[in-house]
Amino acid sequence: MPRRLLLAAVLCGAVLCASAVVATEVARLVQRGTLAAIAPISEIEVQDGHVSGTLSNRSSHSLRQVQIMISYQWLWTNEMHPGEESPADADIVTFPEEMAPGGTVRFTRVIPPQLLGRIDGSLQVSARVVSLEEIIPGAAAR
After folding, report:
1. How far apart are the first and last CA of the chain?
2. Do the beta carbons of residue 41 and residue 53 sit within 8 Å?
């Protein structure tokens, strides 16, 4: 009996010690309306079957798990008589590494093959941030 009681006391103590650990940072998801201000995308270029651009961190905190969406919009030459199926596409790209305040990351992606070499329209490419975590140091998780 005393052995079981001792084991229970040790386990309770371990649980209490583990719960006393305080987080030194917290990751918070940023609201959609402020994403472009915190992490703008610039220098978007389409060349040789690739799209590239630069993602910047304008926050005073580090960012991680930044996700961007690259949209490949197809504009038909004759919008009154478009083709049977739009080749438009989109790509979600995740940057899992932490991005320091003021930092930049260059990205390059291959354009989907169904959009290359066509003569019935033109390709319009855009990119935007759709999700990110901002790391707030010294904040305790709630």
Report:
1. 39
2. yes
What Cα–Cα distance (Å) separates residue 66 from each residue in 18, 25, 39, 89, 133? 31, 18, 9, 20, 7
- Give the range of the structural domain holding residue 121, as residue numbers without chain letter: 24-137
What is the helix (H) or strand (E) element at residue 101, kind and residue range? Answer: none
Q: Tokens 């855009």 — which residue?
A: 126
Query: Does residue 17 form part of some domain?
Result: no
pLDDT digits (tens, 9 = 90+) for 83-116: 888 899 999 999 988 999 999 999 999 999 999 9
SS3 for 36? helix
SS3 content of the chain, % helix, strand, coil (to 5): 20, 45, 35
